[in-house]
Amino acid sequence: MNTMKGIKYIVTAMLLLTMAGCDDSYLDMTNKFGSNTDTFYKTKSDFDAAVAGVYNSLYISGGSVFAEEHITASLLDDTMLGGGGPDDQGAKNVDSFVDPSDDTYRDLWVETYNGIFRANLIIEKLEEVDLSKEFPSEAAAEAYKNNILGEMYFMRGFLLFRAAKFFGGMPLITSTVTPRDLPRASFSETFGQIAADLKMATDLMPRVDPASIPLGEYGHANLWVAQAYLARVYLFYTGYMTNIEGQSTTAFTLPDGGTISKEQVVSLLTDCVNNSGYALVSDFRNLWPYSYVNEAAGSDVYPWAAQEGLKWAGQDGFNGTIGTGNTEVMFALRYTFADWGWSIGQRTTNRAPLFMGLRGNSSLTPFGEGWGWCTIHSDFFSQWADNDPRKRGSVLQAGLADEGMSGYSGDKGDHETGLFNKKYLHLEFDDGSGMKGLFNYIYGWPNTDMQLRHAQDFYYLRFADVLLMLSELTEDAQYMNQVRARAGLDPIAYSLDALKRERMYELAFEGLRWFDLVRWGDVNDPSKNYFDNAIPVGNSGSTATYQVNYRPETKGLVSIPETEIRLSNGVYQQNPGW
Predict the structure, then answer these.
(1) For residues 514 and 554, what is the distance between their CA atoms, to the nearest angstrom?
(2) Residue 323: its pLDDT value, please?
(3) How many angstroms separate the CA atoms of 375 and 306, rounded?
(4) Cα Rg for the chain, rounded, in angstroms?
(5) How do residues 216-229 score in pLDDT, each as one tens digit?
(6) Contact 279, 463 (CB under 8 A)
Protein backbone atom coordinates (compact mmCIF):
# COMPACT_ATOMS: atom_id res chain seq x y z
CA MET A 1 0.00 0.00 0.00
CA ASN A 2 1.10 3.58 -0.49
CA THR A 3 1.18 6.29 2.17
CA MET A 4 -2.58 6.76 1.98
CA LYS A 5 -2.81 3.41 3.68
CA GLY A 6 -5.84 1.39 2.68
CA ILE A 7 -7.80 4.24 1.09
CA LYS A 8 -8.23 2.44 -2.24
CA TYR A 9 -9.66 -0.59 -0.47
CA ILE A 10 -12.17 1.53 1.43
CA VAL A 11 -13.35 3.22 -1.77
CA THR A 12 -13.67 -0.20 -3.40
CA ALA A 13 -15.70 -1.54 -0.51
CA MET A 14 -18.04 1.43 -0.56
CA LEU A 15 -18.68 0.81 -4.28
CA LEU A 16 -19.33 -2.87 -3.60
CA LEU A 17 -21.84 -2.00 -0.91
CA THR A 18 -24.08 -0.66 -3.66
CA MET A 19 -23.75 -3.83 -5.72
CA ALA A 20 -24.24 -6.73 -3.34
CA GLY A 21 -26.67 -7.52 -0.59
CA CYS A 22 -28.65 -10.15 1.27
CA ASP A 23 -31.97 -8.39 1.60
CA ASP A 24 -33.31 -5.00 2.56
CA SER A 25 -32.39 -5.46 6.21
CA TYR A 26 -28.69 -5.72 5.46
CA LEU A 27 -27.51 -3.80 2.39
CA ASP A 28 -28.69 -1.19 -0.08
CA MET A 29 -29.00 -2.97 -3.43
CA THR A 30 -29.43 0.20 -5.50
CA ASN A 31 -26.95 0.31 -8.38
CA LYS A 32 -25.29 3.72 -8.53
CA PHE A 33 -22.09 2.89 -10.43
CA GLY A 34 -23.25 1.08 -13.57
CA SER A 35 -22.20 -2.35 -12.28
CA ASN A 36 -24.19 -5.18 -10.76
CA THR A 37 -23.70 -8.78 -9.73
CA ASP A 38 -24.37 -9.95 -13.30
CA THR A 39 -21.88 -7.65 -15.04
CA PHE A 40 -19.14 -7.07 -12.47
CA TYR A 41 -17.59 -10.47 -11.69
CA LYS A 42 -15.87 -10.99 -15.05
CA THR A 43 -12.16 -10.13 -14.69
CA LYS A 44 -9.27 -10.60 -12.31
CA SER A 45 -9.46 -6.95 -11.30
CA ASP A 46 -13.18 -7.40 -10.53
CA PHE A 47 -12.43 -10.29 -8.20
CA ASP A 48 -9.49 -8.48 -6.57
CA ALA A 49 -11.80 -5.57 -5.79
CA ALA A 50 -14.55 -7.88 -4.54
CA VAL A 51 -12.12 -9.65 -2.22
CA ALA A 52 -11.14 -6.28 -0.76
CA GLY A 53 -14.82 -5.69 -0.10
CA VAL A 54 -15.02 -8.83 2.02
CA TYR A 55 -12.16 -7.69 4.23
CA ASN A 56 -13.69 -4.23 4.47
CA SER A 57 -16.92 -5.72 5.80
CA LEU A 58 -15.08 -5.99 9.11
CA TYR A 59 -15.54 -2.29 9.78
CA ILE A 60 -18.30 -0.98 7.54
CA SER A 61 -21.40 -1.47 9.66
CA GLY A 62 -23.95 0.60 11.54
CA GLY A 63 -21.24 2.35 13.49
CA SER A 64 -21.57 0.90 17.00
CA VAL A 65 -18.18 0.56 18.64
CA PHE A 66 -19.37 -2.75 20.11
CA ALA A 67 -19.06 -4.26 16.63
CA GLU A 68 -15.30 -3.97 17.22
CA GLU A 69 -14.40 -7.45 18.47
CA HIS A 70 -11.37 -6.33 20.46
CA ILE A 71 -13.22 -3.54 22.27
CA THR A 72 -16.17 -5.70 23.30
CA ALA A 73 -13.94 -8.64 24.28
CA SER A 74 -11.78 -6.27 26.34
CA LEU A 75 -14.79 -4.93 28.24
CA LEU A 76 -15.86 -8.51 29.00
CA ASP A 77 -12.32 -9.43 30.06
CA ASP A 78 -11.70 -9.79 33.80
CA THR A 79 -8.39 -7.89 33.64
CA MET A 80 -10.02 -4.73 32.23
CA LEU A 81 -12.73 -2.46 33.62
CA GLY A 82 -15.54 -0.57 31.92
CA GLY A 83 -14.12 2.90 32.44
CA GLY A 84 -15.18 5.96 30.49
CA GLY A 85 -17.16 8.78 32.03
CA PRO A 86 -20.63 9.07 33.53
CA ASP A 87 -22.11 9.16 30.02
CA ASP A 88 -20.38 5.93 28.89
CA GLN A 89 -23.04 3.64 30.23
CA GLY A 90 -22.75 1.26 27.28
CA ALA A 91 -19.20 0.35 28.25
CA LYS A 92 -20.26 -0.25 31.83
CA ASN A 93 -23.19 -2.38 30.71
CA VAL A 94 -20.98 -4.68 28.65
CA ASP A 95 -18.47 -4.84 31.50
CA SER A 96 -21.28 -5.76 33.93
CA PHE A 97 -22.94 -8.37 31.69
CA VAL A 98 -26.20 -6.49 31.17
CA ASP A 99 -27.87 -5.27 27.98
CA PRO A 100 -30.76 -2.93 28.75
CA SER A 101 -30.85 -1.66 25.16
CA ASP A 102 -31.35 -5.22 23.79
CA ASP A 103 -29.47 -4.28 20.61
CA THR A 104 -25.95 -3.55 21.87
CA TYR A 105 -24.38 -6.17 19.61
CA ARG A 106 -26.56 -5.84 16.51
CA ASP A 107 -23.89 -4.24 14.33
CA LEU A 108 -21.59 -7.20 15.00
CA TRP A 109 -24.38 -9.53 13.82
CA VAL A 110 -25.11 -7.49 10.68
CA GLU A 111 -21.41 -7.04 9.91
CA THR A 112 -21.02 -10.83 10.01
CA TYR A 113 -23.68 -11.54 7.41
CA ASN A 114 -22.67 -8.65 5.16
CA GLY A 115 -19.22 -10.22 4.90
CA ILE A 116 -20.53 -13.78 4.58
CA PHE A 117 -22.84 -12.79 1.73
CA ARG A 118 -19.97 -11.15 -0.15
CA ALA A 119 -17.76 -14.21 0.36
CA ASN A 120 -20.57 -16.52 -0.84
CA LEU A 121 -21.06 -14.38 -3.93
CA ILE A 122 -17.39 -14.57 -4.88
CA ILE A 123 -17.33 -18.35 -4.33
CA GLU A 124 -20.32 -18.75 -6.62
CA LYS A 125 -19.10 -16.34 -9.31
CA LEU A 126 -15.68 -17.98 -9.49
CA GLU A 127 -17.38 -21.21 -10.51
CA GLU A 128 -18.96 -19.43 -13.52
CA VAL A 129 -16.10 -17.35 -14.92
CA ASP A 130 -13.22 -18.24 -17.24
CA LEU A 131 -10.15 -16.17 -16.36
CA SER A 132 -7.61 -18.15 -18.39
CA LYS A 133 -7.07 -15.37 -20.94
CA GLU A 134 -5.72 -13.09 -18.21
CA PHE A 135 -2.97 -15.53 -17.19
CA PRO A 136 -0.02 -17.07 -19.03
CA SER A 137 -1.49 -20.57 -18.62
CA GLU A 138 -4.60 -22.37 -17.49
CA ALA A 139 -2.62 -23.67 -14.51
CA ALA A 140 -1.84 -20.11 -13.43
CA ALA A 141 -5.50 -19.13 -13.76
CA GLU A 142 -6.53 -22.16 -11.73
CA ALA A 143 -3.96 -21.33 -9.04
CA TYR A 144 -5.36 -17.79 -8.80
CA LYS A 145 -8.92 -19.06 -8.49
CA ASN A 146 -7.95 -21.61 -5.85
CA ASN A 147 -6.21 -18.97 -3.77
CA ILE A 148 -9.21 -16.62 -3.94
CA LEU A 149 -11.55 -19.50 -3.10
CA GLY A 150 -9.31 -20.38 -0.17
CA GLU A 151 -9.40 -16.80 1.09
CA MET A 152 -13.18 -16.67 0.80
CA TYR A 153 -13.72 -19.96 2.61
CA PHE A 154 -11.35 -18.69 5.27
CA MET A 155 -13.17 -15.37 5.59
CA ARG A 156 -16.56 -17.06 5.73
CA GLY A 157 -15.29 -19.29 8.53
CA PHE A 158 -13.50 -16.42 10.22
CA LEU A 159 -16.57 -14.17 10.21
CA LEU A 160 -18.82 -16.94 11.50
CA PHE A 161 -16.32 -17.83 14.24
CA ARG A 162 -15.97 -14.18 15.19
CA ALA A 163 -19.73 -14.02 15.76
CA ALA A 164 -20.23 -17.50 17.25
CA LYS A 165 -17.70 -16.81 20.01
CA PHE A 166 -20.07 -14.09 21.21
CA PHE A 167 -23.52 -15.38 20.22
CA GLY A 168 -23.23 -19.18 20.12
CA GLY A 169 -25.19 -21.03 17.43
CA MET A 170 -25.73 -18.98 14.25
CA PRO A 171 -27.83 -19.25 11.07
CA LEU A 172 -25.65 -21.08 8.53
CA ILE A 173 -25.98 -19.00 5.37
CA THR A 174 -23.69 -20.82 2.94
CA SER A 175 -25.01 -19.47 -0.37
CA THR A 176 -26.52 -16.29 -1.74
CA VAL A 177 -29.92 -17.97 -2.03
CA THR A 178 -30.06 -19.39 1.51
CA PRO A 179 -33.28 -18.10 3.11
CA ARG A 180 -32.81 -15.08 5.35
CA ASP A 181 -35.08 -16.54 8.05
CA LEU A 182 -33.02 -19.71 8.52
CA PRO A 183 -33.13 -20.84 12.18
CA ARG A 184 -30.01 -20.70 14.31
CA ALA A 185 -27.97 -23.87 14.09
CA SER A 186 -26.76 -25.64 17.22
CA PHE A 187 -23.39 -24.73 18.72
CA SER A 188 -21.86 -27.95 17.35
CA GLU A 189 -23.38 -27.50 13.89
CA THR A 190 -22.11 -23.92 13.75
CA PHE A 191 -18.58 -24.90 14.68
CA GLY A 192 -18.68 -27.84 12.31
CA GLN A 193 -19.38 -25.39 9.47
CA ILE A 194 -16.60 -23.08 10.64
CA ALA A 195 -14.16 -25.97 10.76
CA ALA A 196 -15.22 -27.19 7.31
CA ASP A 197 -14.61 -23.74 5.82
CA LEU A 198 -11.21 -23.36 7.44
CA LYS A 199 -10.16 -26.86 6.40
CA MET A 200 -11.25 -26.07 2.82
CA ALA A 201 -9.06 -22.97 2.99
CA THR A 202 -6.04 -25.04 4.06
CA ASP A 203 -6.67 -27.42 1.16
CA LEU A 204 -6.93 -24.66 -1.46
CA MET A 205 -4.34 -22.03 -0.58
CA PRO A 206 -0.68 -22.38 -1.61
CA ARG A 207 2.34 -22.62 0.64
CA VAL A 208 3.47 -19.00 0.52
CA ASP A 209 6.63 -17.42 1.87
CA PRO A 210 5.38 -14.45 3.93
CA ALA A 211 8.53 -12.53 3.04
CA SER A 212 7.37 -12.62 -0.59
CA ILE A 213 3.95 -11.07 0.08
CA PRO A 214 3.89 -7.63 -1.57
CA LEU A 215 3.02 -4.70 0.64
CA GLY A 216 -0.23 -4.10 -1.23
CA GLU A 217 -1.50 -7.59 -0.31
CA TYR A 218 -0.47 -7.53 3.33
CA GLY A 219 -3.45 -8.14 5.59
CA HIS A 220 -4.94 -10.94 3.51
CA ALA A 221 -5.25 -14.44 4.92
CA ASN A 222 -2.97 -17.21 3.71
CA LEU A 223 -2.49 -20.94 4.28
CA TRP A 224 -0.59 -20.47 7.55
CA VAL A 225 -3.26 -18.19 8.95
CA ALA A 226 -5.94 -20.74 8.07
CA GLN A 227 -3.99 -23.52 9.79
CA ALA A 228 -3.60 -21.43 12.94
CA TYR A 229 -7.24 -20.38 12.98
CA LEU A 230 -8.40 -23.97 12.68
CA ALA A 231 -6.39 -24.66 15.86
CA ARG A 232 -7.87 -21.62 17.60
CA VAL A 233 -11.39 -22.72 16.66
CA TYR A 234 -10.67 -26.28 17.80
CA LEU A 235 -9.45 -25.12 21.21
CA PHE A 236 -12.44 -22.85 21.70
CA TYR A 237 -15.04 -25.37 20.54
CA THR A 238 -13.75 -28.42 22.38
CA GLY A 239 -13.08 -26.35 25.50
CA TYR A 240 -16.52 -24.77 25.45
CA MET A 241 -18.35 -28.04 24.93
CA THR A 242 -16.30 -29.80 27.60
CA ASN A 243 -16.15 -27.07 30.26
CA ILE A 244 -19.33 -25.02 29.73
CA GLU A 245 -21.79 -27.52 28.28
CA GLY A 246 -20.38 -30.48 30.22
CA GLN A 247 -20.17 -32.59 27.05
CA SER A 248 -16.59 -33.80 26.66
CA THR A 249 -15.69 -33.22 23.01
CA THR A 250 -12.45 -33.93 21.14
CA ALA A 251 -13.34 -33.49 17.44
CA PHE A 252 -15.41 -31.45 15.00
CA THR A 253 -18.31 -33.12 13.23
CA LEU A 254 -18.51 -31.59 9.74
CA PRO A 255 -21.69 -30.87 7.75
CA ASP A 256 -21.00 -33.85 5.47
CA GLY A 257 -20.70 -36.19 8.45
CA GLY A 258 -16.91 -36.33 8.46
CA THR A 259 -14.74 -35.27 11.37
CA ILE A 260 -11.59 -33.30 12.11
CA SER A 261 -9.59 -34.76 14.97
CA LYS A 262 -7.12 -33.24 17.39
CA GLU A 263 -4.33 -35.11 15.60
CA GLN A 264 -5.21 -33.42 12.30
CA VAL A 265 -5.26 -30.00 13.95
CA VAL A 266 -1.89 -30.63 15.62
CA SER A 267 -0.39 -31.76 12.31
CA LEU A 268 -1.51 -28.57 10.54
CA LEU A 269 -0.34 -26.31 13.38
CA THR A 270 3.03 -28.08 13.54
CA ASP A 271 3.42 -27.46 9.81
CA CYS A 272 2.70 -23.78 10.45
CA VAL A 273 5.30 -23.54 13.22
CA ASN A 274 8.00 -25.42 11.34
CA ASN A 275 7.51 -24.21 7.77
CA SER A 276 5.58 -20.94 7.60
CA GLY A 277 8.55 -18.59 7.89
CA TYR A 278 6.88 -16.53 10.62
CA ALA A 279 8.97 -15.92 13.71
CA LEU A 280 8.97 -14.00 16.99
CA VAL A 281 10.41 -10.50 16.77
CA SER A 282 13.46 -10.05 18.98
CA ASP A 283 11.80 -7.92 21.66
CA PHE A 284 8.11 -8.19 22.60
CA ARG A 285 7.96 -4.43 23.11
CA ASN A 286 8.96 -3.77 19.50
CA LEU A 287 5.58 -5.12 18.38
CA TRP A 288 3.85 -1.95 19.56
CA PRO A 289 4.02 1.52 18.00
CA TYR A 290 5.07 3.26 21.23
CA SER A 291 8.54 1.89 20.41
CA TYR A 292 8.63 4.23 17.37
CA VAL A 293 7.54 7.54 18.88
CA ASN A 294 11.03 8.91 19.53
CA GLU A 295 12.21 8.10 16.03
CA ALA A 296 9.15 9.72 14.50
CA ALA A 297 9.31 12.82 16.67
CA GLY A 298 13.00 13.34 16.12
CA SER A 299 13.51 14.00 19.82
CA ASP A 300 13.36 12.29 23.17
CA VAL A 301 9.63 12.60 23.79
CA TYR A 302 9.32 9.14 25.32
CA PRO A 303 12.26 8.60 27.71
CA TRP A 304 11.43 5.00 28.64
CA ALA A 305 11.46 3.78 25.03
CA ALA A 306 14.73 5.62 24.43
CA GLN A 307 16.34 4.14 27.54
CA GLU A 308 15.30 0.63 26.53
CA GLY A 309 16.57 1.06 22.96
CA LEU A 310 13.26 0.02 21.45
CA LYS A 311 12.74 -0.04 17.69
CA TRP A 312 9.33 -0.75 16.20
CA ALA A 313 9.01 -3.77 13.95
CA GLY A 314 6.29 -1.91 12.01
CA GLN A 315 2.82 -3.08 11.04
CA ASP A 316 3.15 -3.83 7.34
CA GLY A 317 4.56 -7.34 7.52
CA PHE A 318 8.03 -8.35 6.39
CA ASN A 319 8.19 -5.67 3.71
CA GLY A 320 6.94 -2.52 5.39
CA THR A 321 8.65 0.79 4.85
CA ILE A 322 8.48 1.69 8.56
CA GLY A 323 10.23 -0.41 11.20
CA THR A 324 12.54 -3.40 11.08
CA GLY A 325 10.07 -5.81 9.46
CA ASN A 326 7.32 -7.53 11.41
CA THR A 327 7.86 -11.29 11.14
CA GLU A 328 5.41 -12.10 13.94
CA VAL A 329 2.02 -10.66 13.02
CA MET A 330 0.27 -13.15 10.77
CA PHE A 331 -3.21 -11.64 10.39
CA ALA A 332 -4.33 -8.11 11.16
CA LEU A 333 -7.32 -5.86 10.73
CA ARG A 334 -5.97 -2.99 8.64
CA TYR A 335 -7.19 0.41 9.67
CA THR A 336 -6.74 3.78 8.04
CA PHE A 337 -7.92 7.35 8.65
CA ALA A 338 -11.33 8.96 8.39
CA ASP A 339 -13.06 12.26 7.79
CA TRP A 340 -16.30 13.57 9.23
CA GLY A 341 -17.50 14.22 5.68
CA TRP A 342 -17.45 10.50 4.90
CA SER A 343 -20.70 8.63 5.49
CA ILE A 344 -18.84 5.93 7.42
CA GLY A 345 -17.48 8.42 9.98
CA GLN A 346 -14.86 6.95 12.31
CA ARG A 347 -15.41 3.38 11.26
CA THR A 348 -12.29 3.04 9.13
CA THR A 349 -10.12 3.96 12.12
CA ASN A 350 -9.09 1.74 14.99
CA ARG A 351 -11.31 3.12 17.71
CA ALA A 352 -9.60 1.14 20.48
CA PRO A 353 -6.73 3.67 20.92
CA LEU A 354 -9.29 6.49 20.99
CA PHE A 355 -11.70 4.85 23.40
CA MET A 356 -8.88 3.56 25.62
CA GLY A 357 -6.92 6.83 25.62
CA LEU A 358 -6.37 9.00 28.71
CA ARG A 359 -9.66 10.67 29.55
CA GLY A 360 -9.55 14.46 29.75
CA ASN A 361 -5.76 14.79 29.56
CA SER A 362 -4.98 16.51 26.28
CA SER A 363 -1.58 18.00 27.19
CA LEU A 364 0.45 14.82 27.77
CA THR A 365 2.82 13.20 25.29
CA PRO A 366 3.31 10.75 23.82
CA PHE A 367 0.11 9.18 25.21
CA GLY A 368 -2.85 11.25 24.11
CA GLU A 369 -6.41 11.91 25.07
CA GLY A 370 -9.28 9.49 24.70
CA TRP A 371 -12.44 8.33 26.39
CA GLY A 372 -10.83 6.33 29.21
CA TRP A 373 -12.42 2.92 28.56
CA CYS A 374 -10.91 -0.41 29.64
CA THR A 375 -8.68 0.69 32.50
CA ILE A 376 -6.55 -2.15 33.93
CA HIS A 377 -7.52 -4.18 36.98
CA SER A 378 -5.07 -3.33 39.78
CA ASP A 379 -5.02 -6.85 41.27
CA PHE A 380 -4.06 -8.32 37.92
CA PHE A 381 -1.27 -5.76 37.59
CA SER A 382 0.09 -6.20 41.11
CA GLN A 383 0.26 -9.98 40.74
CA TRP A 384 2.27 -9.75 37.50
CA ALA A 385 5.98 -10.29 38.24
CA ASP A 386 8.08 -7.15 37.85
CA ASN A 387 10.93 -9.11 36.22
CA ASP A 388 8.71 -9.84 33.22
CA PRO A 389 9.41 -7.05 30.68
CA ARG A 390 5.99 -7.61 29.17
CA LYS A 391 4.42 -6.07 32.28
CA ARG A 392 5.73 -2.59 31.63
CA GLY A 393 5.60 -3.27 27.92
CA SER A 394 1.84 -3.79 28.17
CA VAL A 395 0.67 -1.47 30.95
CA LEU A 396 1.07 2.30 31.18
CA GLN A 397 1.28 3.55 34.77
CA ALA A 398 0.24 6.99 35.94
CA GLY A 399 2.85 9.04 37.78
CA LEU A 400 5.97 7.76 36.02
CA ALA A 401 8.11 10.57 34.64
CA ASP A 402 9.94 8.39 32.10
CA GLU A 403 6.53 7.40 30.68
CA GLY A 404 5.52 11.06 30.30
CA MET A 405 2.88 10.47 32.96
CA SER A 406 4.10 12.59 35.89
CA GLY A 407 1.47 15.24 35.09
CA TYR A 408 -1.44 12.84 34.70
CA SER A 409 -4.60 13.85 36.53
CA GLY A 410 -6.80 10.83 37.06
CA ASP A 411 -9.97 12.55 38.19
CA LYS A 412 -11.92 12.87 34.93
CA GLY A 413 -13.05 9.33 34.33
CA ASP A 414 -14.75 6.39 35.98
CA HIS A 415 -13.11 3.15 37.09
CA GLU A 416 -9.80 4.99 37.33
CA THR A 417 -6.92 2.76 38.42
CA GLY A 418 -4.03 4.74 36.91
CA LEU A 419 -3.27 1.75 34.65
CA PHE A 420 -3.84 1.70 30.89
CA ASN A 421 -3.45 -0.64 27.92
CA LYS A 422 -0.17 0.44 26.37
CA LYS A 423 -0.52 -1.84 23.34
CA TYR A 424 -3.49 0.06 21.91
CA LEU A 425 -3.29 3.65 23.11
CA HIS A 426 -3.51 7.04 21.43
CA LEU A 427 0.02 8.21 20.49
CA GLU A 428 0.91 11.80 19.57
CA PHE A 429 3.69 14.40 19.65
CA ASP A 430 4.38 17.99 18.69
CA ASP A 431 6.51 18.19 15.56
CA GLY A 432 6.91 21.96 15.82
CA SER A 433 3.79 22.72 13.82
CA GLY A 434 1.37 21.49 16.45
CA MET A 435 0.20 18.25 17.96
CA LYS A 436 -0.34 15.40 15.56
CA GLY A 437 -0.96 11.69 15.87
CA LEU A 438 1.85 9.22 15.28
CA PHE A 439 0.02 7.75 12.30
CA ASN A 440 -0.52 11.18 10.75
CA TYR A 441 3.27 11.35 10.66
CA ILE A 442 3.79 7.80 9.37
CA TYR A 443 1.25 7.90 6.54
CA GLY A 444 1.08 11.61 5.77
CA TRP A 445 -2.60 12.09 6.56
CA PRO A 446 -3.36 15.83 6.94
CA ASN A 447 -6.47 15.68 9.16
CA THR A 448 -5.07 15.74 12.70
CA ASP A 449 -8.44 15.57 14.49
CA MET A 450 -7.71 13.42 17.56
CA GLN A 451 -10.76 11.25 16.86
CA LEU A 452 -9.78 10.43 13.26
CA ARG A 453 -6.06 9.69 13.42
CA HIS A 454 -5.94 6.10 14.69
CA ALA A 455 -4.54 3.99 11.86
CA GLN A 456 -2.95 1.36 14.10
CA ASP A 457 -3.64 -2.16 12.90
CA PHE A 458 -5.35 -4.59 15.24
CA TYR A 459 -3.42 -7.86 15.48
CA TYR A 460 -5.81 -10.80 15.18
CA LEU A 461 -3.03 -13.40 15.19
CA ARG A 462 0.61 -13.39 16.24
CA PHE A 463 3.14 -16.20 15.91
CA ALA A 464 3.53 -16.16 19.71
CA ASP A 465 -0.08 -17.31 19.97
CA VAL A 466 0.60 -20.12 17.48
CA LEU A 467 3.44 -21.37 19.69
CA LEU A 468 1.26 -21.20 22.80
CA MET A 469 -1.56 -23.06 21.06
CA LEU A 470 0.82 -25.82 19.97
CA SER A 471 2.09 -26.17 23.55
CA GLU A 472 -1.48 -26.46 24.78
CA LEU A 473 -2.47 -29.02 22.16
CA THR A 474 0.63 -31.19 22.62
CA GLU A 475 1.24 -30.49 26.33
CA ASP A 476 4.83 -29.80 25.33
CA ALA A 477 6.57 -26.84 27.01
CA GLN A 478 9.17 -26.30 24.27
CA TYR A 479 6.91 -23.96 22.30
CA MET A 480 5.72 -22.01 25.33
CA ASN A 481 9.34 -21.68 26.45
CA GLN A 482 10.27 -20.01 23.17
CA VAL A 483 7.81 -17.26 24.08
CA ARG A 484 9.24 -17.07 27.60
CA ALA A 485 12.81 -16.98 26.30
CA ARG A 486 11.96 -13.97 24.13
CA ALA A 487 10.90 -12.22 27.36
CA GLY A 488 14.16 -13.23 29.09
CA LEU A 489 12.40 -15.71 31.37
CA ASP A 490 13.65 -19.16 32.38
CA PRO A 491 12.12 -22.29 30.86
CA ILE A 492 9.47 -24.12 32.87
CA ALA A 493 7.74 -27.50 32.75
CA TYR A 494 4.40 -27.76 31.03
CA SER A 495 1.19 -27.59 32.99
CA LEU A 496 -2.17 -26.20 31.99
CA ASP A 497 -1.94 -23.60 34.77
CA ALA A 498 1.48 -22.49 33.50
CA LEU A 499 0.12 -22.28 29.96
CA LYS A 500 -2.82 -20.19 31.18
CA ARG A 501 -0.51 -17.73 32.93
CA GLU A 502 1.69 -17.45 29.85
CA ARG A 503 -1.29 -16.65 27.64
CA MET A 504 -2.61 -14.14 30.17
CA TYR A 505 0.65 -12.18 30.20
CA GLU A 506 1.84 -12.56 26.59
CA LEU A 507 -1.55 -11.82 25.04
CA ALA A 508 -2.91 -9.33 27.58
CA PHE A 509 -5.38 -6.77 26.17
CA GLU A 510 -5.38 -8.32 22.69
CA GLY A 511 -9.02 -9.43 22.76
CA LEU A 512 -8.27 -13.10 23.54
CA ARG A 513 -8.45 -13.55 27.30
CA TRP A 514 -12.24 -13.38 27.56
CA PHE A 515 -12.55 -16.31 25.15
CA ASP A 516 -9.82 -18.20 27.03
CA LEU A 517 -11.73 -17.78 30.29
CA VAL A 518 -14.89 -19.07 28.64
CA ARG A 519 -13.39 -22.10 26.91
CA TRP A 520 -11.49 -23.21 30.00
CA GLY A 521 -14.58 -22.78 32.18
CA ASP A 522 -12.53 -20.40 34.34
CA VAL A 523 -15.19 -17.75 33.81
CA ASN A 524 -17.32 -19.71 36.31
CA ASP A 525 -14.61 -20.06 39.00
CA PRO A 526 -13.85 -16.89 41.04
CA SER A 527 -10.54 -18.40 42.15
CA LYS A 528 -9.42 -18.37 38.50
CA ASN A 529 -10.46 -14.85 37.48
CA TYR A 530 -10.61 -11.28 38.76
CA PHE A 531 -14.33 -10.64 38.40
CA ASP A 532 -15.19 -10.92 42.08
CA ASN A 533 -12.15 -8.96 43.31
CA ALA A 534 -13.26 -5.66 44.86
CA ILE A 535 -10.73 -2.91 44.20
CA PRO A 536 -10.61 0.84 44.91
CA VAL A 537 -11.18 3.11 41.90
CA GLY A 538 -11.85 6.74 41.16
CA ASN A 539 -15.20 7.64 39.67
CA SER A 540 -14.85 11.09 38.12
CA GLY A 541 -12.90 12.32 41.14
CA SER A 542 -14.80 10.44 43.84
CA THR A 543 -13.50 7.33 45.57
CA ALA A 544 -15.44 4.15 44.94
CA THR A 545 -15.19 0.37 44.88
CA TYR A 546 -15.30 -1.65 41.68
CA GLN A 547 -16.46 -5.24 41.43
CA VAL A 548 -18.18 -7.26 38.71
CA ASN A 549 -20.28 -10.30 39.38
CA TYR A 550 -20.17 -12.53 36.32
CA ARG A 551 -23.50 -14.22 35.56
CA PRO A 552 -22.84 -17.93 34.82
CA GLU A 553 -26.38 -18.41 33.49
CA THR A 554 -25.25 -16.59 30.31
CA LYS A 555 -22.81 -19.44 29.53
CA GLY A 556 -20.22 -16.94 28.32
CA LEU A 557 -22.44 -15.63 25.51
CA VAL A 558 -23.90 -12.19 24.85
CA SER A 559 -27.49 -11.38 23.95
CA ILE A 560 -28.91 -12.00 20.49
CA PRO A 561 -29.96 -8.58 19.12
CA GLU A 562 -33.66 -8.06 19.79
CA THR A 563 -34.10 -6.48 16.34
CA GLU A 564 -32.82 -9.67 14.73
CA ILE A 565 -35.20 -11.77 16.82
CA ARG A 566 -38.11 -9.59 15.66
CA LEU A 567 -36.96 -9.73 12.01
CA SER A 568 -36.88 -13.52 12.25
CA ASN A 569 -40.53 -13.54 13.37
CA GLY A 570 -39.51 -15.42 16.48
CA VAL A 571 -37.42 -18.06 14.69
CA TYR A 572 -34.38 -17.00 16.74
CA GLN A 573 -34.52 -17.69 20.48
CA GLN A 574 -32.72 -15.49 22.98
CA ASN A 575 -29.59 -16.86 24.66
CA PRO A 576 -29.90 -18.15 28.24
CA GLY A 577 -29.62 -15.52 30.96
CA TRP A 578 -30.72 -12.68 28.70
Answers:
(1) 14
(2) 93
(3) 25
(4) 23
(5) 889 999 999 999 99
(6) yes
